[in-house]
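Task card 7
Instruction: Convert sequence to structure tokens.
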Amino acid sequence: MISNIHVDNYINAYENGEILLNKERIELIHYIKTYVLTRDDIYFDEQKINNYISFSERWYFSLDNWEKFIAPFIFLYYKEDDELFYEEFFITLGRGGGKNGFISTLSNFFIGPLHGIKNYDVSVVANSEEQAKVSFREVFNTIDGNEKLEEYFDPWKAQIIGKATNSVFKYQTSNAKTKDGGREGCVIYDETHEYEDRQIIDVFSGGLGKVPNPREFFIGTNGFVRAGFYDKLEERCKAVLSGENLEDHIFPFICKLDSADEVNDVANWEKANPAFEKPLSPRSKRLFNKVKKQFDALKNNPAGRPAFMTKRMNLPEVDLEKVVAPWEEILATNRAMPNLKNKACIGGFDYASIKDFAAVGLLFRVGEDYIWKTHSFARKEYLDIANLKPPIKEWEEQGLLTIVDEPSIDPRHVVNWFVEMRKEYGIQKVIGDNFRMDLMRPLFEAEGFELEIVRNPRAAHSLLAPRIETMFANNRIIFGDNPLMRWYTNNVAVKIKPDGNKEYLKKDEHRRKTDGFQAFVHALWRADEVDTVDYSEALDFLNAIDF
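Output:
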């Protein structure tokens, strides 16, 4: 058994009802008590813990209890070789909770003599230089002109040097194409909700391990990017908290409301922001008053609620009248594909934007479920210029799309895909809208497909919208493990017209592609016509013919 006074104090505060925690932090306490504090092969380095807290409170500010709770786990080591038990930390909380101050104190301490590791460089990484410099400026301003601190640290405009350890603290921007992995001892990724993938993490993590005790901190508040790095990291942490993956030594400190309706009781706000834990400090009181004013203003400005819930309560909430489905319902499409061989289906395609993406797919019905098997084509030159954030190359490797190097996407790619699919499935007809039909019709007819045109896509959207909403809400859609299709769907904006009808548009005309979803909608136009005939004999006969 191991213990630390700051850890014990925080756990006791929760168990005695002095602070209110959200589900994930309650799970964290259970995980710590069950799987960490019971070990006898690790130890808290009390000297470093006390040095860090004393250093921070002397030169910066009094640490909140949540910061003192996390600190001991930063200095938790194996007895055998003095290696870190936790090398990764995920810290997410509502805006204003003090995460940048925490970054500042850690960064300054790590490069100093009290930490005592030579060449222990620290980088703060953010999407913008301005955000990356927030903590750097705080450290610089604390040291600059302070004779005592300048004995140990040399502050420069671009970097701060720990003299005794020759360690450097600097800020970086998250442009992976212009970065190379260095020799950092610690990397702190700020505002991780903006990362579409882990490309920049891979760059910086590649330089870790060249000095002792490498650490990575993923810090921020949730945002509006779905299926990006933040969501995947949160899922990874939940597997740790549930006990599903105890070998993954990441420390997850997740603060958020448990449900959206909790926002109406201000007593619940400390679930999302530990700065609101009692007793409130003067800084916390000012923050609470500011957040309360913003909440009260929502009565006259309800459009601001999604941003307030996401940034202040760390619980993303979307305007359900402006999206196809909540992200949780889109995620629920990730179910195993049933056996579809020789099943009847309706084909759908979207070939409107031949300069960037095109999408094809087959719609099946099994019981009450709608199964969508899809593929996409993307033009290389467009991808090179657009510099899209999602992991397109990774999706190509997964077989979800094909990148073609040609002036425009050849319509034969679309038709040939259906020809190949016809060898395994009973394609009753193929449906698209009236864009490019002068190109598509003769190609489909030459291959013997029945082709139907949706002549008024906007009217089709209005008629299908209630059905689509119901299908998502009842988890009746199966995309399989297809992040590309989830991306397409999440990129759709729902426009409500004056007559109350809905239309599916793009959230962003250039960077948020929706081709796969539009192909899905085309196929849904005749979903009721999908029959249950087994085409095994017919397909075997066709496959035996040498066309």
